[in-house]
Amino acid sequence: MDMESSPKHNVEEMKSAEIIAKEVSPKHNVKEIEEKKEEEMKSVDIEEFSRKPVVEIEDMMEDNEEEEMESIDIHEEEGDKIVTMDEIMSVDSDDDDSESSAESNNEITKAREESVDDRSGISHHSSPDTNSSTSSAWTEKAAAIKNFVRVKSEVAVHTLIRRLSGKLSVDNAAHGTRDDEVKSVDSPKTEGKSMWNPLSYLKMMQNDDDSVDREEDVALEPVVMKGRIILYTRLGCEECRECRLFLHEKRLRYVEINIDIYPSRKLELEKICGGDVVPKVFFNEELVGSFKELKGLEESGELEEKIKHLIEEAPPRDAPLPPFSGEDDASSKGPVDELALIVLKMKPCVVKDRFYKMRRFKNCFLGSEAVDFLSADQSLERDGAVEVARKLASQLFFQHVLEENLFEDGNHLYRFLDDDPVVSSQCHNIPRGIIDLKPRPIVEIASRLRLVYRAILEAYTSPDGKHVDYRSIHGSEEFARYLRIIQELHRVELEDMQREEKLAFFINLYNMMAIHSILVWGHPAGTFDRTKMFMDFKYVIGGNTYSLSAIQNGILRGNQRPMFNPMKPFGAKDKRSKVALPYAEPLTHFALVCGTRSGPPLRCFTPGDIDKELMEAARDFLRCGGLIVDLNDKFAYINQIFNWYGVDFGNSEVEVLKHASTFLEPQFSEALLDCLVDTQFKLVYQKYDWRLNN
């Protein structure tokens, strides 16, 4: 067909697809065609035509929802005008114009020729087949319009969700672009097709960073071997740290046995080596030696041969074994709690769902039923049974559903701690069932927790504490022991702890709790996920639930309001307010780590040196980029922590700078304080990097 005579050149104005569909739809000329055919062909049965349905555009769209078209020609019979889909969508989308090609123009021209032939056929000898083909063409065109809108909507909704969750900002930060910059993506084309597919763009957006991460993971993947490497270490050993780094550089996976965590392995090491000097490295059953011996093997070239042997040979029976679950763990040892044995028998007999004060409470029991059970089980008078029940409540086995009293004989409802809906759904340290051992003092539990925490930091973090190997922590025996220790916290007494003990315990617990939440839920990608992590990931400690926010703002900051929240963590009647410190401890902000890159490095804190260690943490954080000051331009670049929690450091920006300057180098600190006397500094807060510190 000659391009000069193409109806496309006669288009005077653009019409919407809906108007054109109404003008050209076969619905308007079916009746006229049927009357004409009755006059010419009276022998044809009229019912054959009456059975032909009138095609509605909406029905066509539903029946052909899965069909896709590359370009659409919409024909107008009156005036022989043709409007393409590209022309219809050109007002809303400039991308479609760039997707045209010579090959697609040939297809459009061919389609136009066929459409003109179809129209000429209708005018000369209209038939049921012609009507059917016209209806089919309009069905495909209508379905293509619907699919086009659907695909565009998917891209828009996906982009919106990524912006709300913060994912798009993280992606753009990784690429060095801003949120308002549009990423240009070449449209994928295949042979014989010129269609732009928005789904491929969506897939590219999702997989851009994933492909980079996969390449990095492949490069750092450890060597696969049948053998086993055992590394004996102890806490605070510098040569042990060097040995770990050496094995990491060689991409050799090893099992670490810390003899301070596993005392029985110290005796094993003495039998094998004649002493307890560490580090000691074993390749299967062969004793390689210390870090110096490893370096010597590398220089002589023998290390590669030993690694090849590890890859091919499995460890024999006489090789040192990895620590087994629960080895040398005091969590499963101790005197039996007789009250816990009573609860184990009582719980299945009295617990069920009940109504109380126009409300429905699940898994609870009446005070009178508890007294009846204790009277029968322990052969006690009713008054004696009430005393036993109060003793159980004071030991935090159960509590009133509305916290109205400790225990009363009557129609009051009580609930066991592990049956509380908040505890069972949000607390991640509740044991499975009742622990039948007597609860240990909180000071002893804190000491064991500190020992395991220190072992995890030395084995699975970088030397500066800024990077964490979460994957190795998740499968380690040290982390499994930590999970067993925190199960002992649900019935401990916290009110008698001293200030130094509270600071060290809750700081160490906060940092391990953040690691635990990342291992369970993953690193939060946006604001909503971060809020869930800080507010909904909880431990039950001393019969009460504590989230990360409750520990930071309620305990360590002396029950101060968290940022962007008008309410204090603990109310006036909240039992947890008795545990809170009397005033805010601002230096704790340089010790709390929530798994971000802008946060301080991880370290372990002890009650005896807590104030000294907090001063060191603040000094290291501010001197390593937390505060940057230009005395010539009167400019200060400071971490966002001082913006979010500025009230803990001072009532104005000048007071905040004075507080922060005390942790800088003495000479620089004096110069800054002299400038602050008569000079106004411009204070700019650093952008916080929420990416994972892995």
- Low-pLDDT windows of residues: 1-31, 42-128, 167-209
The order of strands across the largest sheet is 4-3-5-6
Structural class by secondary-structure content? alpha+beta
* Shape summary: globular
Considering DSSP H and I runs of 4 or more, what fraction of the residues is helical?
Answer: 40-55%
Alpha-carbon distance between the termini? 65 Å
SS summary, helix count: 27
Radius of gyration: 37 Å
Q: Assess the beta-strand content as a share of residues.
A: 5-15%
Q: Could you tell me the number of beta strands?
A: 15
Summarize the main sheet: 4 strands, mixed
Mean pLDDT: 78
Description of the structure:
This protein is of the alpha+beta class and 694 residues long. It is built from 27 helices and 15 strands. The strands form five sheets. Strands 4-3-5-6 form a four-stranded mixed sheet. Helix 15 (367-378) crosses helix 16. The longest helix is centred in the N-terminal third of the chain and has 38 residues, at 128-165. It holds the Pfam family DEP. Residues 72-84, 109-121, 176-191 have a biased composition (Basic and acidic residues). This is Glutaredoxin.
In short:
By secondary structure, the protein is α+β, with helices and mostly antiparallel strands. It has a 4-stranded mixed beta sheet with strand order 4-3-5-6. A 4-stranded antiparallel beta sheet has the order 7-8-10-9. Residues 1-31, 42-128 and 167-209 have low confidence and may be disordered.
